[in-house]
Structures are given as structure tokens and as C-alpha cells.
Design brief:
Blueprint lengths: L3 E5 L40 E4 L9 E11 L7 E7 L1 E6 L2 E6 L8 E7 L7 E11 L14 E7 L14 E4 L3 E4 L3 H4 L8 E5 L21 E5 L13 E3 L6 E6 L2 E6 L14 E3 L4 E22 L4 E7 L23 E6 L6 E4 L4 E11 L5 E12 L7 E4 L2 H16 L17 H14 L4 H12 L20 H17 L3 H6 L1 H12 L45 H20 L3 H22 E2 L4 E2 L10 H9 L5 H13 L11 H10 L11 H8 L22 H10 L2 E3 L7 E3 L8 E8 L2 E10 L3 E8 L5 E5 L2 E5 L2 E6 L1
Parallel strand pairs: 7-14, 12-20, 28-32
Antiparallel strand pairs: 1-34, 2-13, 3-8, 3-10, 4-7, 4-9, 5-6, 5-8, 11-12, 15-23, 16-18, 17-23, 18-21, 18-22, 18-23, 19-20, 19-22, 24-29, 25-26, 27-28, 29-30, 30-31, 31-34, 32-33
């Protein structure tokens, strides 16, 4: 029974709990917002013009070097430029890399970065050097494009000297570079990232980034149209939008330890950068390095001499045996590396630095060297880790040390799947899929408090919609793909954002897209059955073995009834989206629409129960034929409200106990847990973590796409436990839209003690609790200012006030 709960502004924390600081007054620390140009007008064309290399196809593969030298009488306090390119660029000032971009987008929202170059400038002669590349036919799927181009505009009178389109710019076609596409036959899988790089050092103009380089033999660039802000002008190839997320971080990172060497052995200290490695002439050498964890990074190889040598750099998430099985990730005996490759042929010069156009993903890194008549010295081999600067502002601890390891690996998984956009996996696709992104966005909100990638994703999906109303399943993408249920999850994302952020303007802007998605599904309801009929496109739900990939049909993961009609799972997903949309409609004064959508959802629930409920098995069948049964159908049956109360709880208990049901994999378990919580079984969540413990036992340093055998060792949707530790175990969730109130309902399961820190729009929510006997609870809940809440425990609902609340139940 309840004994007492006292709201206090300051108090001593229980001695059994590890954190003793008082509630944090400030909010979460986030990466700085991108710089904005001060003098730029967004209602007229840019002063600067797009430029491009002359006498080449602007659609084909090419790497181009642009230079602009200029003099400064004094060192400026401010020298701001806005820059963009197609496909991509890296900007150097006086030989130093400053940034790369642009932020991923689409032609109608082509991003530009604004950067203050003053810290890298000096009195006298300076050079702005920009490497621009177009992957052409080898573009990754995530790269949309118009044609090769560069635009730079200075902000203010002083910086105008570097405007593109004005005199002074020079360009060179760097024919040292050629593409090295991934060998899909060797990898035996779908891979659509950037090609590898093959670089002939003898053809590269070394020193081109530095002041004083002789570019008199370079060409004047082709001058194209003025830059055009969004909504300005006609016949537009690209509408320029300012970057809305922070610049990607680049952090020096040493490579891991040497696990295997042949032909020549690196000296002690090589991987730490303390010793160079000289490989004799006419030698074949190979070294395998183990990073120890998966990473996204630009490799950086520095070599001297070695004219006539060939160097191959290869990258993989895991090694494989003769049967192409990954197995224990730490083992190397009898295993080889098959993966993405780069090749570099040095020209014999001193301290030549090779790096890649795009970052690579690896745990294992293999360097293969074949020297010619000269020795080759590898002066250094290191890397620059990169990604979205997502700061970890949350904490979680408990009396189960195994959960700390899941927290660590889950956070690494989430970090590696976030760059200019969220992405499903960093090694194979780097595409922002709705199914993954919804989970990733919640992780960002809970562990960082950074909502910028979530807003960016919601807006991109809205702009991706087809004329028929559906969003594309992944965006940006040069290869359109539609997974119709993902459009429903997009509505769920909008609802999630509405619950966690008080941002009515942004949410209101998505309402037209919500209407369009629901209209498409309404047109596909079978009037005879009341269920969704046959659906076009791809109706992916999950990756259980029972729904395998079909190479002939080019689909997989579809439940029964997706192609023929009558899928209970898809019908109930539609019902859930209708209810979420009705919530939004009511919040924006659209009562008529809200009522219509609520009624449509009720009709769908009734149709499923009338035709798909199996009274004998007391389960929802996947179709009216009742020949297939899955955990998925039971989960959405509960989440949609098709079954409620005690019957819903009993259904979930049967779902967890019945081994004959098609199981949810790591992805859809996110929704199975939502159903468990809805019926009061959240305390059993920790028992559902067996697949994650199994992955750790195999030596994975990130969480995989699915249980073994898996393609991707790092997949965004599998990071969901780190969100659940805070939202389910600690129980911190919004109590009302905009997170204006907080609901704390812990689900401790077998745990005796937990503490969590969750970023909130007004600061932090901090929870620290210890069990007392079978039903008691002791500890505290800290809430931000002006944010009341409620604690739910053992059937009690206890009011919480802003500040510190002492719990003694």
C-alpha cells in the first residue's frame, strides 16, 4: 500500500543509488546548430553561379579539383561562405580540410553549408581548394543528383572574392581517380553504397590544396545558372535550402591491433602510429587489423617511395569461413575477409596521403601490398571516424551488469546508423527507411534529446510522396521504392514527434500528407470483406524465416494475404494509423476528420475479429483462411484495440508461450513489447532480450539486422533496447502531447534497482528506484521545471510535482 510520496526541491539521494548530484538545471548538451549566412536574401537568386568542369559529361563519373587563390590585407575576424556541390565535396583552406557535404537531400531541397573560414585564413595569399566528385552510374542509392557542379557564395563584402561564377576560379579533372564498384557476386548480397576508389598516384597533382601550387595549366570552369533558393524562379534544377543539421564530426581514430600478417610483419607500434613499416622490393605482404568494434571512418594511409607498388585496402564487418558463415566474430582462424575494397598505386614520392571520397565501415581491415622494384614505407595508417554528432545525454544503470553491455553496444549501433540522415545499416545500404527510422528517432530523443534528424526525416518522407499519396519507403533515394505499411509508420512518426515535442507548426505541416496516405489505404479496403484487399508495391512487415525473400518476385517479409487480400496484420496496422491520425486531427480542430477516421478504425477492427479470430486457438489468424498464425497479428490486434482488457492480456500471454506462432524478429519485437506494456506485462520485457544476449555472446560489437545468419552486423532497428531501458524499464514517457507532463511507470522485471536520466525539452527527467519487498518501492523522481507528472506503480497513480519527488511506497 502507499505509505508516502513527498515532493522536494532538494534532498539526499538514497545511499544505495549510484548518482548523487541534484537535478540538472540545464538541458542536454547538443552539437551546435549550423551557421546561417547573415547577408543572404532567400527571396531572390544568389549572386554566385554554379560552375562545372568544361568539356566533360556532367552526368558521368569524375573527380574534379577547384581552386581560388586570393589575397587578404589583414586576418579577418569573419569570412563566411555558403557552399554546395553535386554529388559531393570536401573543402580545404590553405591545405587544411574544413568540412565536407552537402547534407543529403533531393533536387527540390538541395542543401548548402555555411562555414566561417576565418580561423584558417592569414594575411597575404590564401587558397580555397574544393574537391568535387560525381559517382555517375556508380552513385549510391542514397545519392540523388542533377549534374556535376559547385557553388560558393561569400557572405558580406570581403568574402565575395570567392564567389563562383566570378573570375579567378580554376578547375582540373583529376584522372587519377576511377571507381571500384563492390563485387556483388563475391559479396552475394544487395549492396548499394559508394564504389571503392582506385587511385593512380602518378596522375594526381600532389600539393594542389596548398598556396603556391602552379595551376596555370588548369582550365577556367564552365559557368552555369545562378544559385536559386527554394520557391524562387522557373526552370529550376536545384532549389537551395540551408543545412538544418550539424556538420558531421571527424575524430582521429587509430586502427586496431594486428591479428595476422604474411610476407612481411609490421613492427611493434605500427598500428599505434609509433613505427613505420618498410616492405622490401618484389614482396607480397598482407596484414589483418581488428578494430575491436565496428566503425565508420575515412581511412588515411601515408606512404613514401614504392613506385610500382599496388596497395589494396579491404573492409568487412566480420570474417567468413569457407561456407561463407560469419560465426563467432572474434575468431580469425580459417576465416577470410571478403568486402569493399580501395586500391592505391603510389608514385614514389615522400609521405603521400591516400584517403577515400566516402567513409568506409569496418571492424576488420586488411591491407594487401605488392611492391615492385622499390621498397615501400608505410609511414602511418590511421583513420578519421565520422557520423552525426549525436551526444549521449542519457544514463541507465541497474543491478544487472549484462544490461550495461547492451546499453554500450546499442548506443554504438545507433551512432553508426546516423549521418546526414538516419540509415538502416552503414555497410550495405545507408538508406533512410521508415521502419528503422521510427525506432532510431525515439532513441535520439531519449538518449540525446536531439530532434533535428527526426524532423529532417519526417519532412523528407513527406516530400517523397508519390502522386497516389504514399510516401516512399526510403528517402532520399535515386531508386524509388514503396513499402505501403511504412507510410503508416510515417504517420506513427508524426504522432511520436507530436507527443515528445511542442511544435504545432511542424506537425500541422504534415497533415496534408497524413490525409493522402489514409486516402490511399481507404481506396484499397475490400468492400466485401471490410479488410484490406490485394496491395500493390511491397507490403514488408518483418523478416521471420516463414516469410523469406523471393528472388523471382523480388519481395520478402510479407505476411499471408498481402498479395491476395485479407491480411489481418496489414489491416490492423491501418487501423492503428487511423487512430493516431484521429488524435492529431482532434488536436488541430479537425473534429469531422477525427470522427471519420475513428469510425473507420473501428470498422477495420470489427472486420478482423469477425473473419480472422480463431475461436479454437483463441488467436487472430493472419488471414480469414486461418492457416497461418503469427506473433505479429496478436501484437497489432492488441495495439489496435481489436482485443482489450483481460482478454488482451490473456492473448499476449498465449502469444509469448506458443512456440508454434511465427515469431517476431528483433525488428518487430519493438511492437510486440508495445502490446505487452499495453496489457500490463511490461515486467516481462527483460525476458525478451535473449536475441541481444546471443549477439553479444557471438562477439558482435553492434546489433545485427536479424538472428543468425544475418547479412548486416549493424542495423538501426536492433538498437531498440536502449530506448526501452529508459521508456519501459525506468518507465519514462510523455503523459500528454509535447511532453508537457511526464508519466513514470517502471517495469523492473527481475531487477532490484534502476536509475535513469532522460533528456526532456525543459531539462531532464531523473528516476532512481529500489524495490522494497515484493510490492514496495523507494527512491526519487526528478522532473523539470513547469513539468508535472504521475508515477504509476502496482495500480496506484501518484501525482508528481516539478523538482524532486521522494518515493516511499
Amino acid at each position: 500500500m502507499m505509505r508516502r510520496i513527498l515532493p522536494l526541491v532538494a534532498m539526499a539521494v538514497l545511499s544505495s543509488l549510484p548518482w548523487t548530484s541534484t537535478i540538472l538545471a540545464s538541458g542536454p548538451a547538443l552539437a551546435p546548430a549550423p551557421l546561417k549566412p547573415e547577408a543572404m536574401r532567400f527571396d531572390r537568386a544568389w549572386r554566385a553561379r554554379w560552375i562545372a568542369p568544361p568539356a566533360v559529361s556532367l552526368a558521368d563519373y569524375g573527380v574534379y579539383l577547384f581552386r581560388r587563390e586570393f589575397d587578404l590585407a589583414t586576418a579577418p575576424a569573419r569570412f563566411v561562405v555558403s557552399v554546395s556541390a553535386d554529388n559531393r565535396y570536401r573543402l580545404f583552406v590553405n591545405g587544411t580540410s574544413v568540412c565536407f557535404g552537402p547534407q543529403a537531400g533531393e533536387p527540390l531541397s538541395w542543401r548548402f553549408e555555411t562555414v566561417d573560414l576565418a580561423p584558417w585564413l592569414r594575411v597575404g595569399k590564401n587558397v580555397l581548394a574544393i574537391q568535387v566528385w560525381n559517382f555517375g552510374e556508380h552513385r549510391p542509392y542514397a545519392q540523388m543528383s542533377v549534374s556535376t557542379g559547385l557553388i560558393v557564395q561569400g557572405d558580406g563584402d570581403l568574402a565575395q572574392v570567392v564567389d563562383t561564377g566570378a573570375d579567378g576560379w580554376r578547375v582540373h579533372h583529376d584522372r587519377a581517380w576511377s571507381p571500384l564498384p563492390a563485387d556483388r557476386a563475391a559479396l552475394q548480397t544487395f549492396i548499394v553504397v559508394s564504389p571503392g576508389d582506385e587511385v593512380d598516384g602518378a596522375k594526381h597533382p600532389w600539393g594542389w590544396r596548398d598556396v603556391g601550387f602552379d595551376d596555370r595549366g588548369w582550365a577556367a570552369p564552365r559557368v552555369l545558372d545562378n544559385g536559386t533558393p527554394a520557391g524562387v524562379g522557373t526552370d529550376i534544377e536545384r532549389w537551395l535550402w540551408p543545412r538544418e543539421i550539424p556538420l558531421m564530426e571527424e575524430t582521429p581514430q587509430r586502427l586496431g591491433r594486428v591479428r595476422r600478417a604474411a610476407g612481411s610483419t609490421p613492427p611493434e607500434g605500427f598500428s599505434e602510429g609509433k613505427a613505420a613499416w618498410t616492405i622490401p622490393p618484389r614482396t607480397t605482404a598482407a596484414v589483418l587489423l581488428d578494430q575491436g568494434f565496428e566503425t565508420n571512418a575515412f581511412p588515411r594511409l601515408t606512404v613514401s617511395g614504392g613506385q610500382g607498388a599496388a596497395i589494396t585496402l579491404a573492409y568487412a564487418e566480420a570474417l567468413v569461413d569457407a561456407q561463407r558463415r560469419k560465426g563467432p566474430r572474434d575468431e580469425i582462424e580459417g576465416r577470410t575477409l571478403i568486402g569493399v575494397e580501395d586500391r592505391f598505386r603510389p608514385d614514389g614520392g615522400a609521405r603521400r596521403v591516400f584517403t577515400t571520397l566516402d567513409y568506409r565501415t569496418w571492424r576488420y581491415f586488411e591491407l594487401h601490398v605488392q611492391t615492385g622494384d622499390e621498397p615501400l614505407t608505410i609511414d602511418d595508417l590511421t583513420a578519421d571516424a565520422t557520423g552525426y554528432p549525436l551526444a549521449l545525454n542519457a544514463r541507465f544503470s541497474s543491478d544487472d551488469p549484462a544490461l550495461a553491455r547492451i546499453w554500450e553496444v546499442g548506443w554504438r549501433t545507433a551512432r553508426l546508423c546516423a549521418a546526414d540522415t538516419y540509415m538502416d545499416c552503414p555497410y550495405y545500404e545507408r538508406l533512410q527507411y521508415v521502419g528503422d527510422t521510427r525506432i532510431q528517432a525515439l532513441i535520439s530523443l531519449y538518449l540525446s534529446g536531439d530532434d533535428r534528424l527526426m524532423r529532417n526525416a519526417i519532412a523528407l518522407y513527406d516530400r517523397s510522396r508519390l502522386p497516389d499519396g504514399l510516401t516512399q519507403s526510403r528517402y532520399p533515394s535515386r531508386s524509388p521504392q514503396v513499402i505501403s505499411p511504412f507510410s503508416l509508420f510515417w504517420i506513427g512518426m508524426v504522432h511520436d514527434y507530436w507527443m515528445h515535442r511542442d511544435d504545432r507548426t511542424f506537425v500541422a505541416a504534415q497533415q496534408r500528407g497524413v490525409d493522402a496516405v489514409l486516402s490511399w489505404f481507404a481506396e484499397h479496403v475490400d468492400a466485401r470483406t471490410g479488410l484490406l484487399g490485394p496491395l500493390p508495391y511491397w507490403s514488408f512487415v518483418d523478416w521471420p524465416d516463414a516469410w523469406p525473400w523471393n528472388n523471382e518476385a523480388r519481395i520478402g517479409g510479407e505476411p499471408p494475404g498481402a498479395r491476395t487480400g485479407g491480411s489481418s496484420i496489414l489491416t490492423l496496422q491501418y487501423a492503428i494509423a487511423l487512430d493516431r491520425a484521429a488524435d492529431l486531427a482532434r488536436a488541430f480542430g479537425r473534429g469531422t476528420e477525427a470522427a471519420a477516421w475513428a469510425k473507420a478504425a473501428a470498422d477495420l477492427r470489427a472486420a478482423v475479429m469477425a473473419q480472422c479470430w480463431d475461436a479454437q486457438r483463441r488467436l487472430i489468424a493472419d488471414t480469414p483462411e486461418k492457416s497461418s498464425f503469427s506473433q505479429h497479428a496478436q501484437a497489432v490486434g492488441v495495439l489496435s484495440g481489436a482485443i482489450e482488457g483481460a482478454a488482451a492480456r490473456e492473448l499476449v500471454e498465449r502469444t509469448l508461450a506458443d512456440s508454434t506462432l511465427i515469431p517476431c524478429t528483433v525488428y518487430f519485437r519493438f511492437y510486440l513489447l508495445r502490446a505487452m506494456k499495453q496489457v500490463g506485462l511490461g515486467d516481462r520485457y527483460l525476458d525478451q532480450l535473449v536475441p541481444w544476449h546471443d549477439m553479444l555472446a557471438l562477439g558482435l560489437s553492434t546489433f545485427a539486422e536479424r538472428p543468425e545468419p544475418t547479412r548486416s552486423d549493424c542495423h538501426a532497428w536492433s538498437a531498440s533496447p536502449i530506448y526501452e531501458f529508459l521508456a519501459t524499464v525506468c518507465g519514462v514517457e510523455p503523459g500528454s502531447p509535447g511532453f508537457k507532463t511526464v508519466r513514470v511507470e517502471p517495469h523492473l522485471g527481475r531487477l532490484q534497482q534502476v536509475e535513469g536520466l532522460v533528456p526532456h525539452p525543459r531539462g531532464f527527467v531523473r528516476v532512481g528506484i529500489v524495490r522494497r519487498g515484493a510490492r514496495g518501492l523507494q527512491g526519487y523522481v526528478d522532473l523539470p521545471s513547469d513539468t508535472p507528472g504521475v508515477l504509476v506503480w502496482q495500480g496506484f497513480e501518484i501525482p508528481l510535482e516539478p523538482g524532486r519527488n521522494r518515493i516511499d511506497l
